[in-house]
Amino acid sequence: SVYVPAHWRESREGTMVYFRGDGRTLGIDQTDQPKSDPVADWKAQRNYRLAAGDFPNYNEIRIAEVPYFKKAADWEFTYNNGATHVSNRGVIVGPSRAYGFWWQTSGNDWAAAAPILQLVYDSFRPDPSKVG
Predict the structure, then answer these.
(1) Would you give the end-to-end CA distance of the chain in angstroms?
(2) What is the band of 127 on the pLDDT scale with cuts at 50, 70, 90?
(3) Burial class of residue 53 (count of CB atoms within 10 Å of its CB; 0-12, 13-18, 19+)
(4) Per-residue pLDDT band at 121 (split at 50, 70, 90)
(5) How many C-alpha atoms does 105 have within 13 Å on its Cβ side?
(6) Strand partners, 72
(7) What is the pLDDT of residues 33-89, one digit of tens each?
(8) Centroid of chain to Cα 15
(9) What are the residues facing 106 on neighbouring strands?
């Protein structure tokens, strides 16, 4: 479970569940086969996505380990000359369960949206049967 503003729209695209509202996007993904090193995983995904041309005018802010559940890392960046700001958090909660949190706002809205992202992280509770 996780907090999401009640008026945000929910949609599913493949394995992702998206919540959108107020010009912000929260995407949550889940895997039963987590990579052992979230930082290395984000670096590999960054290299792949940049080679594919997914983030024009990419500017990396950081890829770093963060203290969250068993293991976690944040990949934060802007693209479109700073018009779009993203935080992508990979979280290992157990030996066979990990989640990804995609948070996207406009560059101008980033600071104002930060408390909602923190509330998402603070409220997240994975399925207790999958945490080990």
Answers:
(1) 17
(2) confident
(3) exposed
(4) very high
(5) 14
(6) 91
(7) 999 999 999 999 999 999 999 999 999 999 999 999 999 999 999 999 999 999 999
(8) 14
(9) 84
99 phi and psi, to 5 degrees?
-130, 155
Contacts of 72 (CB under 8 A, 6+ apart): 38, 65, 66, 89, 90, 91, 92
- Would you mind telling me the total number of residues written for the chain in this entry? 132
DSSP symbols for the chain: -----TTSEEEEETTEEEEEETTEEEEEEEESS--S-HHHHHHHHHHHHHHTT-STT-EEEEEEE--SSSEEEEEEEEETTTTEEEEEEEEEEETTEEEEEEEEEEGGGHHHHHHHHHHHHHH----GGG--
pLDDT at 15 over 80: yes
Between CA 87 and CA 90, with CA 88 as vertex, the angle to 5 degrees is: 140
